[in-house]
Amino acid sequence: MNATDALALAELGSVVLSTDPDVTATYAHDESRLTARAIPFAVLAPTSTQEVSDCLRVASRQGWRVVTRGAGSGLSGAANGDGEFVVLSTHRMDAIVSVDPVERLAVVQPGVVTGDLRAAVAEQGLFYPPDPGSVGFSTIGGNVATNAGGMCCVKYGVTGDFVLGLEVVLADGRVMRTGRRTAKGVAGYDLTHLVVGSEGTLGVVTEVTVRLLPAPSPALTLVATFASLAAAGRAVAAVSGSGAPVSMLEIMDRTTLQAVDRMARMGFEPDTAAMLLAQCDTTDAADVLAAVAGHCDAAGAVDVAVGDDPQEGAQLLEARRLALPALEQLGDWLLDDVCVPRGRIVELLERIETVAADEGLTIGVFGHAGDGNMHPTIIYDDADEAGRAAAVRAFDRITEHALDLGGTITGEHGVGRLKRSWLARELDATSLDVQRAVRAALDPGGVLNPGNLFDA
Q1: 244 C-beta neighbours (distance < 10 Å), count
Q2: How far apart are CA 16 and CA 234, in angstroms?
Q3: How far apart are CA 25 and CA 4, in angstroms?
Q4: Residue 188 half-sphere exposure, CB side, CA atoms within 13 Å?
Q5: Which of 93, 179, 271, 302 has the highest CB neighbour count under 10 A?
């Protein structure tokens, strides 16, 4: 940081949270592994749209790179920077501005924790469905940036399906409003959903208008155990093909179950190869889950149980949320995020088992079976060069298998830096050219999150 930069930071006043390297280092990266990172020379923490505008106006003038950060819970390196850059943290912008029960919408700032929004609207008999595994600490702004998914996607969809409008500050400090607050509206290009999932490369989101639903009936829960991953995969394919309106269909393999059991003492049988967790929140949930149980039995389930105890269902759901934290206890980890057509989940699971055997690695598999979004988690020793190389090979092979099976390189975590080299393998050259052109039109100086997505 030179003298001119110091004067520019002084111009921003109290918006500058810190320039102390010991502090800025804590804002240097998200929760991803094996992604490039550096320490920002300053952390900016605005409290309003105007302050965000001031930050970007100064950054554009100074030629600063700006990395926008929410809770830092991302898993793709999208909140990482390199070279000389500043972090713009939205954690101080954490107000639920309004909840409108008539129009069934809420207006929130980007720093609002997802679980807090869900709880706030539930008090008014409303429901905000997006439910990422990090619901207790991830923020709405980060969810919008990555178009986050979660465990309810099989029925309700992803974050973008509930975003009606945005307030966005562009790289030069101009403020843009997109979308609507009405039940319908098709005026102009859909800039809202262009920004959703853009991973901080097109602007800084400062306000989000989200759609709400009436609160559903209390969910019933089914748990089914299997002696093989393939049998569980067959059950998933059968349930998906039946069109059963489940609100959740999750899977955990043996490695994940044992890790969770060690952490939370859930009492899972050690010889269980896979467990499916399904929920249904319709008024005929008992009948729906009875049909799901039949599909599980036909696929070779060892045991199937349907419960109506909300506390027991919550405990099982918590076990699923503990999947990654539990696997983290086994060693260094590298989390993949791939999505395949639901009819090809069995093939993906079988290929992951082959990769684990070939590379001599432990790979825990869990994920959103209902929409084909799996999270193979590779356990390795980062201090061992050969082990690290094997983990990278396994990660690449699993990602390649997903594409080969007609899937995508990321279902919900985003491309970030972790999978930047893979984007050109999934998208055609024309699509990449168009996306780069859009990026250049909105941020010609390359201020916002350079190095993310497809940038060099």
Answers
A1: 21
A2: 54
A3: 22
A4: 8
A5: 93
The CA–CA distances, whole Å, from 127 to 51, 110, 190, 319 equal: 31, 18, 25, 23
**Do 346 and 230 contact (CB within 8 A), yes or no?**
yes
State the residue for tokens 């280092």.
25
CA distance 32 to 334: 8
Residue 78 has which token pair? 């999208």
C-alpha to C-alpha distance for 70 and 87, rounded to whole angstroms: 10
Please state, in angstroms and rounded to a whole number, the distance separating the CA atoms of residues 232 and 369: 10
Q: Which two structure tokens, joined as six digits, stand for 116?
A: 């807090």
- Give the end-to-end CA distance of the chain in Å, rounded to a whole number: 23
Look at the block and give the residue holding tokens 């049909």: 291
Over residues 344-367, the pLDDT tens digits come to: 998 999 999 999 999 999 999 999
Secondary structure of residue 291 in the 3-state scheme: helix
Interatomic CA distance for residues 224 and 317, integer angstroms: 14
CA dihedral 109→115→120→126, nearest 10 degrees, is 110
- Closest by CA to 194, choosing from 27, 438, 450, 389, is 438
Q: Which amino acid is at 225?
A: T
List all residues 6 or more positions away from 228 whose beta carbon is below 8 Å from its beta carbon. 273, 274, 300
Contact residues for 409 (Cβ-Cβ < 8 A; gap 6+): 338, 399, 402, 403, 415, 419, 422, 423, 425, 426
Tokens of 167: 């307030």
Model confidence at 455, in pLDDT bands (50, 70, 90)?
Answer: low
